[in-house]
Amino acid sequence: MIENMKLKKYFGLIMIACLCASLSFANGNTADTKTPLLADSLKKAKQNPLAPKKSCCKGSPSKAKMLAQQKKKKQ
Amino acid sequence: MKISFTNSAIALLCLTAWGCGNAGKPAAQQNADTVASQMQPTTAPAGMVLIKGGTYTMGAIDSTFTDARPLHSVTVGDFLMDEHEVTNAEFAAFVKATNYVTVAEQALNPADYPTVDPKDLVPGSAVFTPPEHPVNLNDAMQWWQYIAGASWQHPEGKNSSIKGRENYPVVHVCYTDAAAYAKWANKRLPTEAEWEYAARAGGGNSTYYWGNELHPGGKWMANNYQGHFPDKDLAEDGYKGVAPIKKFPANKYGLYDMDGNVWEWCSDFYRPDYYQHSPANNPLGPTDSYDPDEPGAVKRVQRGGSFICSEQYCIRFKTGSRGKGEVSSGSNNLGFRCVKDI
Asked: Pfam families per the record (chain B) (predicted)?
């Protein structure tokens, strides 16, 4: 009977240890869910040798710029 | 006692195994699962798509787009989004109901353009006018012309019309016009974060919103420019200039033309440095605008690129990249779509 109680006690302790370990592992991982994604992206960005060297538009032209340019063209 | 003890042990082991199994998944896979579980659609009003909110990595993977860096984690809430760009027919209904006059149709105030000859201050807008020969790509004025009389009703100038183009996206609408329409429709313009989240449709950091190939299997996925820019448009995608709505495949959320066709206004002010300190939850944009290319001009963000975007020029149709425009200026490659809060 006493041996059985001891066994239960040890087994209980092992279970608590297992539970703590699993919770801390899962917690650490979920907390970092976003980070590896970001890290992956950054890594990929660094590896990207295809950064375009070509012209990159500056957005649609503003009316003021266009009108000013027309004046220049006339001159 | 023994039975309950054994049961507890089994339950604990199961719990541990589940925890480890989930935690062991790559983060990207977990993220994809989350997005998949949030896939649309459930219910939305006709013409709109329910976008379930979530968290994603915002910004451009391509470091060329310095204003779309750094990549950063952003969370947006649920919202409804127009499934296509606002059409001429829809905008006409707004004008009919309100007698609204777009900025491109209004007289210009000489005080706003002190350096311009008052004789040149006629209502009009910017029209893509391709030259007949190759030109220096550093000078956009080689292919843009201010055309007197150009407006949403006359996209190429006073002798053109939108008759037969009712299902084309409305163009020559500046930010003020787009915001006025949105208010009338009881909607609003999307934030830049909402727009990008919707355009990505749960996808990762691929080159284009639909994947890494420009035209996978020979299929054109958006209305962009093919050929030698700006003088030789081969129109391999079937369209020279703007296309009617919904002629290219929808993205995974059921949204059409998020990439290409016409640029789309977002509600955020434009600043190239915004991503360096933007909030992680529902960012609304900075409180003012600044564009070092045109200091003093008030600019808002535009997204998605247009029919003049290509690998050769205007590469800002790629995933995460940003555009910008002065708030009172329109052009024939610029439109918008609306969103609505739930």
From this structure: FGE-sulfatase
How much is the average pLDDT of B286-304?
Answer: 95
Q: Is A40 exposed, middle or buried (0-12, 13-18, 19+ CB in 10 A)?
A: middle
Please state, in angstroms and rounded to a whole number, the distance separating the CA atoms of residues B324 and A59.
5
Smallest Cα distance from A36 to chain B, Å: 6
What letter does residue B42 receive in the DSSP assignment? S
Structure tokens of B274?
Answer: 């915004």
Chain A residue numbers touching B315 (CB-CB < 8 A): 52, 54, 56-57
pLDDT of residue B190: 98
DSSP helix/strand/coil, B39: coil
Reduce the DSSP state of residue B100 to 3 states and report it: coil
**Contact with chain B for residue A17, Cβ under 8 A:** no
Domain spans of chain B, in order of start: 49-341
Say if CB B102 and CB B173 are below 8 A apart.
yes
Task: Read off the amino acid at residue B227.
Answer: G
Q: What is the rounded distance in angstroms from the CA atom of residue B140 to the CA atom of residue A59?
A: 10
Q: Is B14 on the interface with A (CB under 8 A)?
A: no
Q: What is the CATH number of domain B49-341?
A: 3.90.1580.10
C-alpha distances in Å from residue B71, one per residue of B135, B278, B321:
34, 11, 11
Interface predicted TM-score (ipTM): 0.74
User: What CA–CA distance (Å, rounded) separates B124 from B113?
Assistant: 14
- Is residue A24 in a domain? yes
CA B292 to chain centroid: 22
Residue A7, chain B, CB below 8 Å: the answer is no
B146 three-state secondary structure: strand
CA distance B327 to B285: 15
Query: In this predicted model, what pLDDT tens digit does every residue of B61-104 receive, in sequence order?
Result: 999 999 999 999 999 999 999 999 999 999 999 999 999 999 99
Q: How many domains does chain A have?
A: 1
Is A36 part of any domain? Answer: yes
